[in-house]
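Chain A, query sequence.
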Amino acid sequence: METGEDFGPWLARQLKLAGKTQAELAEELKLTRAAVSAWITGRSIPRPTMMTEIARALGTDVGTVHTRTTDTQAGLPTTWYHRPGYDDGGRDGGNAAAFAFDADVQVLARETCQNSLDERLVENGRPVRVRYTIHEITGERLEAFRQAILWDELQSHYEAVSETAAHQKVGRVVHAGVRDMFEKGRLVLLRVDDYNASGLIGDDYADGKFAAVVRRQLESLKSDRAAGGSFGLGKATLWATSALGMVLINSTLSVPHEGRTERRVIGRLELPWRSVNGETCAGPAWLGRPDPDSRRGEVTRSWWADEETVERLYLTRDSDEPGTSFLIVGAHDVASLAESNPDQATDDENGRGGLEDDGTRDIRSMHRRLKEALERDFWAAMTAGGSRLPLLETSVRTLRNGQEVVEEEHIDPTHAQPARTRALRAFYEGTTVDRLTEAGQVALRTVPLRLPLTGGRRGTHGIHQAVLLVTDASDKDGVPKQVHALRGNRMTIRRSTVAGLPLGVNSFQAVLLAGTAAGENAPFAEEAEEFLRAAEPPEHDRWGQTEELTLRWSHTAHHRIARLTTEVNAAVKELVARPKRSGDEGGAKLRKALTVSASKKTARRAAGPGLPELDGLDASIGAAGEWRITAEVKLPRADELPVMTPVVLLDVRSGARPRLDWAELVAEEGCEVEDGMLRFTPGARRAVFGGATDVTSHPVRTALTRLVLELRAGKGE
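Chain A, predicted structure.
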């Protein structure tokens, strides 16, 4: 049962919604204005018999007046408010924050799950539950939904955007989304629900979680050092995933607002600048109830919807647990379209070839990719052991007009990540060992992260002991010989391959626990959380040089992370360097496909300093078909070394070798990356860098190619 709002504030708002003054209500009730004023200010409350008269005057039932858990429906129906164009003539071609991410459901899963983890209610000790529902609607369901979102009010705005679509990226996406909806007669809705989370608490306009998500850009109110997000950008993935730029929201609050908690509803639309019927619109629009306190009563605010309304908007939640439901209208997954290849006939879960399509292939693909992302990035947050409960539970389901296309799948981390979950459970249960002597064991080492002093001061604030776990791997664990690094919220931040491994080592997986993930008693855990969080870009997918790291610590602070990587690699090598078991021919086949170009391994010239030389190469084929590379460079003794450019080529039998582009190039040890070139640290004897190739530059499928890596002086032309 919800706690009703105090009578005075509730009555004041109902008068505004109904467009009535205190004097007018007093006249209808045949009372003095002072009596109504006393109710408003809380000096008195009306008698039960007067409640009936107040309900009649407000056009509602007496139960609503008694409980005060919802607004009356008198006057001011829900509508769309479009932000007016700027007086200075400025124009926005879309929300710039959305350009920080691709329209990719795997990126969406990473960002939304991270946000839900950050908003988990920790007092009860239970995990936050996140559920993804893909729902394709057609026919009468689609038409009813268009009526529910007041499509007639929006159509002229979409037409205006379509007229200028050729000049704007956002406009082209929106134009294609509208055309797809009408030509194919279907619409894909993707809903993200979380439970046991805080919900969008706070006022519509003042500082708070609601305003940060719904009203503002680039604002993050997360104060917990272990939080995953810090830029206020993650929410933009919701709108980036919508081809119509529309997201509807229904939140159940953990802290009452206006005396209630359930069904706080609002919608936000992200469109480019447009001119409609002679009126210019800046971009965003909000679906809500007009706020009588706003300019000319035009601005819309959230409203407390009834159950029928949230059902028509596909926003009905499963329970009254606090949390928020985000409905992405017109969801699209550009990445899944890019990876679709008509030459590849892959079987779906029903055994049908990929070329067969019953009209659900794209939503099945979205389902699969969501599941893969959750298994890959949040396996640790979903793993329990000892006295530790999981932080997260996730599931994915896919519907078409209310009927199951793919039944709900609850993500089990032990299925996709058996070795890593085994390692983490062993740490939680205290069953780790110092040395790997038997299959299934988990070895533990601590590795130091030397935290720098803030403000550019020289010295070390403290040494945080991160925890490294190593165990043997199987084929189910994905790419072998990787280290998954994570911190307090247990989302995988960095995946890296250990460079310089001796030949013949057994296949293994490693986990690095840093910050509060290393344990409650780990020294300087909170400080490590803050430092590593500042070393993450908006994607939160690596640790390295960032502007925040430079401003708060120094321009060399990222060298502490490079040193941590060196310590981790050394510890892994020490644990796994033993003869390899027979039967692992897959790794041998891959090694045959890797070549360090012999043209760069020439003898050192008799005069002058030597050049850096490639000394080791490890690579694997990523999930998107890219080459993921880690390379070691041997550095000669010299006071100053030339910059070098790593060049990726495909080995061919004749003719020039095709050159591939880098999608990512990252310095790990003894070097820095600058404009695609490597600058080496003075005095270092070795350097390590890693990267991934750009799949769009591959002339043929990666699995059919041999890789050549060269290190060229200068710009590498």
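The radius of gyration is 29 Å. Residues 558-576 form the longest helix (19 residues).
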